[in-house]
Each structure stands twice: as C-alpha cells, then as structure tokens.
Design brief:
By secondary structure, this protein is an alpha/beta fold. The chain contains 16 helices and 25 strands.
C-alpha cells in the first residue's frame, strides 16, 4: 500500500509541516507504528475495528490515520468544525467503536461519552506516548492481500439528505491515488499547500494521500486565510516553493478578493508568485466560468477542473497537458469507465444529450456502512455506480455537469432546467456576488424556478435590470420567478451550497 512505502524509499525527506512541527517520512512511519501498537494493545481491539479520529490537519493527523491502517483498523476522520449533533450522527452511522481525539475538544468529548457509553475514547497525545509493557506487539504484515479490506469511511456531503457512511477499501484508495498521481504529474519535487478539510476525499485523497504517495511534501493549515496563503506563495517556508494548490471555488473567490484589494505593485508580485506553480485545481462544487477567467488573468494559469464524489474518488478531469475547457470537468481518467444513461437506464449515445453519470472501476467504493438496501439501489445489475449527477458530453468526449438530478435538475412547465446553467448566467450580472437556484414546488408549474442571491455590497443590485438581463441570456422558462436576497448561502464544511436549506429559506418567506 502506498502509505507503507515512503519511509523505506525516502526516509529523510520532509513529508509534513503543520506550523508547529515538521516530520520526515521515517518519523511519520515511526509515529504510525506507535499508534498501531498502542491500539493493538487496547482491550477489545480486533482487526477491522472502526476507529474515528477527531484531529486537526497536522503531523499527528497523518500518524493516527496511518496508525489505524497499520493496526488493521478502518479510519473514520471526523470534521473538526462539526457540532456535537453532527458528530453523534457520524459515530452512529459509521458504527464507530473507538474515538481518538486531540486536545481542545473536551466539552464535545464529554457529551459524546454520555451519548455513546460503549465507545472507547483516547487522547491522541496519550496514545502517541503510550509504551505497552513487555515486548511490543507485532504489527500485521501489509501486502497486496489487504486490497479488499475496508480502510476508510467518509461521509457523503449531505447536500441532498443526511450524510451516509461510504466505505472504501485499501484497493479503492490505492486505485484512486495511483490514477491521480500519474494523471496530474505528482512527483517527489512537489510541495503542496493543504487548506482543505481532512474529512473529505478532496483534501484526504487528492492532496494529502497523492502527495505522500509521490514522495512530495505538504504544508497543512488548520484554517484557510487568503492573506496567509498569498504570503506563503510569495515567501516560501525554508525555500519550499509551492508547486500544487487544490481548493474549492469559494476559496478561489476569496483569494481573488484579497488580491483585488492590494496595490498595483503588490498585485504584480502576487501574479509572479501564482505563475510559479505548476498546477492549480478546483473541485467539489461548480466553478463559475467568470472565476476561471479571472483566475487566468491573476495567475497565468487555467484552473484544472475535475469531477468526483465521496463514493468514487475522481472520475473525470481536464487534462494536465491538454486543453482545459471552461465549464467542463474534462474526460474520464485512466482506469475509469464513465457513461451517461437516460431515465430508463439506457445508455445515451453520441454527443450533446443529457443523462445521469454512471461510473465503474477499481476506485468505486464497496458500499454504505449498514445500508445494504441503499447500496444495492446505488448500483446497476452490471456494477455501474449511479452518481445521481446529470451531464452532457460533447463530440470530443468532454463532460459538462448540469447538476444533481435530485436538486439541480428542475422540472417546470414540462421543461427540464439546469440550476447550474442559470446560476452561471446570472453570476455575470453586476451586483450578484453569489447565487443559488432551486425549484420551489408549485401546483401549476410543478416547480417554480427560484433564485437566492447574495448581493455584492460594493455594487447596488437593481432587480429590474437583473430580470431584463436574465431574459436576454436565458429562455423565458429558465428565468426565476421567485427571488430572495440573503446575507449568505447555507454551505457545508466543504463550501458546497446545501440546496435543501436554500429551499427552506423560500418556504419560510412564503409562510
């Protein structure tokens, strides 16, 4: 497995720096072994035990993640920003029997202890310092036979319902990582800035695991701050020049806002720093074309947009060396089968016809923990995973996402409408900072197109002109008939807009 190789190949190479502590590959491996031996020595520990860990992005995070794997356990990373109620759902849904937690979470831990009396809780510091009495217990031999074993449980984003626990095997993770390392050109020369939460596949697999599999280094940040990131790009730590940066669209918007607030001289320095990276990637939510174009001006780079989800890792990506198309998530990655099917489950032939994305390959997860019926319903009889996302494919094979079939494909007056298409068009109007389009149930139309708007405080938003603008850009049946101004859009920890919460905003107004 990739996570067991680095210490042998490049033991003295710096792997992780978290602002307080730096660790080489050999030190990471040694820390992971301490964690593994401490776990194996715990009463009740068994192979395949489901172990959650609630630790901020850090050297310790990796030691515990690898340590759980090294002990033969299943790792469940928890979101450090989640309130107690969300954590309770994660522990229950994921079948967790043991929790490792960092300092600073004591009030939550006490509440969780009361709610889960049969779950064992460990301080991460104590576990790393533990020295089992007598001879240290032997660690399992890691080899190719581990491929079908469960390795990790991540929770779905919860944008359309309660998060489900998706189980990935060691083989699934290995396939995801190897494909991305090759496709995105990762090497031991890379240095990545890790600003994404480490409870989601984007931060865990695309950044952390890929970097460590390639022998690269990662600088982890507990919180994103635009000024801090720009400063690091201009002033590398210990000469470690950043080469790779991955983020969600909201982070790129924040970086652009910070950039635009600087003097012309400073902006020149920022552009030079941003130009020096070899790869900028955006994902986890739709990237507005306007953001892509503006980032190209600022950095001399076209953002590489890709498509994936918790259950499958990454399936589609714009090419590293070829054409990166605005509004497109690219082509199928090597080893990944992708197809579009209509509502009858029949494959959609040719180009420019919409259908649900279905995916098949070694990187697809094994199923939802404790939810056999949901797992069966998510796969076709011949093994294709039903993503629930709708897309179109052009003549060159590039895919463009139209949205989640359940929340982003609206049915109004007999027409099917893409919420993402409407959002993309209206985002170009001056005064619109952010927008989310949903379908509000309606007896006459089936659904009415509704738009929740966050105005730009620097520009007066003129609603009459916005509606006129919409009619010039969109077919009349796509133009929203319900509008709502709000201070902010509801989002999850990854920055994705939670459409059910947006819909509830309209419901509250209509009451």
């Amino acid at each position: 497995m990739f996570w067991a190789e680095g210490a042998q190949a490049i033991p003295n190479k710096q792997a992780i720096w978290d602002g307080r502590r730096c660790a080489t590959y050999e030190e990471l491996s040694a820390g992971a072994s301490r964690v593994a031996r401490a776990l194996i020595s715990q009463p009740g520990h068994v192979a395949g035990e489901i172990i959650a860990f609630w630790v901020p992005p850090s050297v310790q995070y990796v030691e515990i993640q690898w340590g759980i794997w090294r002990a033969g356990g299943v790792a469940v990373p928890l979101c450090v920003q989640h309130p107690t109620a969300e954590l309770e759902h994660s522990l229950s849904e994921g079948g967790v029997s043991r929790v490792i937690h960092a300092r600073g979470f004591d009030p939550h831990i006490e509440a969780l202890r009361s709610a889960f009396p049969n779950v064992t809780f460990h301080s991460s510091d104590e576990l790393l310092k533990a020295r089992p009495g007598g001879a240290p217990p032997p660690l399992p031999v890691v080899d190719s036979t581990w491929a079908p074993r469960p390795a990790q449980i991540l929770f779905t984003s919860g944008t359309t319902g309660r998060p489900k626990a998706a189980v990935a095997t060691h083989g699934n993770i290995e396939a995801q990582v190897r494909t991305l390392v090759a496709s995105w050109g990762w090497s031991s020369k890379d240095h990545a800035l890790g600003v994404l939460p480490l409870h989601h596949t984007h931060g865990i697999i695309n950044v952390l695991c890929c970097a460590l599999a390639a022998g690269a280094s990662v600088e982890l940040f507990e919180k994103f701050d635009a000024g801090t990131i720009w400063d690091r790009l201009m002033r590398p730590r210990d000469g470690a020049k950043t080469t790779v940066f991955m983020a969600v669209p909201t982070i790129y918007s924040a970086l652009l806002e910070w950039h635009d607030a600087q003097s012309p001289v400073t902006q020149t320095w920022l552009k030079e720093a941003a130009s020096g990276l070899r790869l900028w990637v955006s994902g986890s939510a739709a990237l507005p074309v306007s953001t892509l174009m503006r980032w190209r001006e600022v950095s001399n780079h076209t953002l590489l947009e890709r498509y994936g989800m918790t259950e499958i890792g990454m399936a589609l990506s714009n090419p590293l060396g070829g054409e990166r198309r605005a509004g497109s998530v690219g082509l199928p990655l090597p080893g990944v089968e992708v197809r579009l099917v209509d509502e009858a489950g029949v494959e959609v032939p040719g180009a420019d016809r919409s259908g649900e994305i279905q995916v098949r390959g070694a990187m697809v997860f094994s199923g939802y923990f404790g939810r056999e019926e949901a797992t069966r319903a998510s796969f076709t009889a011949d093994g294709w995973f039903k993503t629930g996302d709708t897309a179109v494919r052009d003549e060159q094979g590039y895919y463009r996402i139209l949205g989640r079939s359940s929340v982003d494909i609206l049915k109004t007056g007999g027409y099917k409408v893409s919420a993402l298409e409407i959002e993309e068009a209206l985002c170009e109007f001056p005064g619109v900072r952010e927008i989310a389009v949903v379908g509000v149930p309606d007896e006459k139309w089936g659904e009415r197109v509704a738009a929740a708007i966050v105005p730009d405080p620097a520009v007066a938003l003129e609603m009459e002109r916005l509606e006129e603008f919409a009619l010039r850009r969109l077919a009349r049946y796509k133009v929203p008939t319900l509008w709502l101004e709000c201070r902010a859009l509801p989002r999850n920890a990854m920055g994705k807009v939670t459409k059910p919460e947006v819909l509830r905003l309209f419901s509250a107004v209509r009451r």
